[in-house]
């Protein structure tokens, strides 16, 4: 089978992405990243980052509780490393040592099952203070959707204002490898948002951020005209549509949100183009 490759300038270097785990990374509140939410799915494992000395609260649906008195309703892989209690529809736990990575499984009176992966937040990442599960149809879910619409509208305004700045201060130093059919016409970022422009009627792919451990996490995004606007920058993204996969690497990525301007003087003007088969 002929491999199809996207090239920017220079020699193409291979990108290697580890197989993604079927784990869900909660969405962070726009007001405080330590307050998080995730849509309930019985087939998802939810990642939770904790921190020694701090309590994490899991909030279930109103009226939903762990079956009291039934020891089979809750199990933890490394229970001695965690303090855990529950009250009503809330579950509280905190790590008792610095390396207590484990999993937590439980069922509730609403016949729902939950699977959580508990690990420690890194020095540069925020722990989870509150994680609320969302359930389609209830009032809290509808409120969340409304808040997301407001955030999206604000993001459109900010991105439009940013792109209208004189001079267009963009980083275009993106390299990629994978399925040619998923290739955007151009890729660039302004230090805050990443833009994937498509000048045809292609079906837009799902976009995932590649974490430092090789796992993938869904990103927040919206469509603005012919451009898919991703609400963050990252060193690596993966685009997926059906069985097709395309990896994209930001060669000028800066974790502080600004790109490196000290490389080639032509680094900002390199354009993504489709390579030969």
Automatic annotation (TrEMBL):
This is P-type conjugative transfer protein VirB9. Keywords: Signal. The gene is virB9. It comes from the Bacteria. InterPro entries: Conjugal_tfr_TrbG/VirB9/CagX, VirB9, VirB9/CagX/TrbG_C, VirB9/CagX/TrbG_C_sf. The keyword RNA-binding does not apply. Pfam families: CagX. It comes from Neisseria weixii. CDD domains: VirB9_CagX_TrbG. The keyword Magnesium does not apply. Belongs to the TrbG/VirB9 family. Residues 1-22 form the signal peptide. Gene3D superfamilies: 2.60.40.2500.
């Amino acid at each position: 089978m002929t491999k199809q490759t996207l090239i920017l300038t220079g020699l193409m270097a291979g990108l290697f992405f580890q197989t993604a785990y079927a784990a869900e990374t909660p969405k962070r509140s726009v007001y405080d990243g330590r307050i998080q939410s995730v849509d309930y799915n019985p087939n998802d494992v939810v990642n939770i980052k904790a921190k020694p000395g701090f309590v994490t609260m899991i909030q279930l649906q109103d009226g939903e509780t762990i079956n009291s008195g039934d020891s089979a309703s809750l199990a933890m892989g490394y229970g001695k490393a965690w303090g855990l209690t529950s009250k009503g529809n809330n579950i509280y736990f905190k790590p008792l040592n610095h390396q207590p990575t484990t999993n937590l499984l439980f069922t509730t009176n609403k016949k729902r099952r939950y699977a959580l992966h508990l690990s420690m937040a890194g020095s540069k990442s925020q722990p989870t203070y509150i994680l609320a599960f969302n359930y389609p149809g209830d009032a809290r879910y509808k409120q969340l959707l409304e808040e997301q619409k407001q955030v999206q509208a604000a993001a459109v305004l900010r991105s439009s204002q940013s792109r209208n700045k004189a001079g267009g201060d963009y980083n275009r130093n993106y390299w990629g490898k994978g399925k040619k059919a998923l290739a955007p016409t151009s890729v660039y970022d302004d230090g805050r948002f990443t833009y994937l422009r498509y000048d045809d009627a292609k079906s837009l792919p799902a976009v995932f951020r590649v974490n430092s451990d090789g796992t993938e996490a869904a990103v927040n995004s919206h469509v603005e005209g012919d451009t898919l606007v991703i609400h963050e920058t990252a060193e690596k993204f993966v685009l997926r549509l059906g069985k097709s996969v395309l990896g994209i690497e930001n060669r000028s990525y800066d974790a502080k949100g600004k790109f490196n301007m000290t490389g080639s003087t032509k680094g900002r003007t390199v354009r993504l183009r489709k390579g030969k088969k």
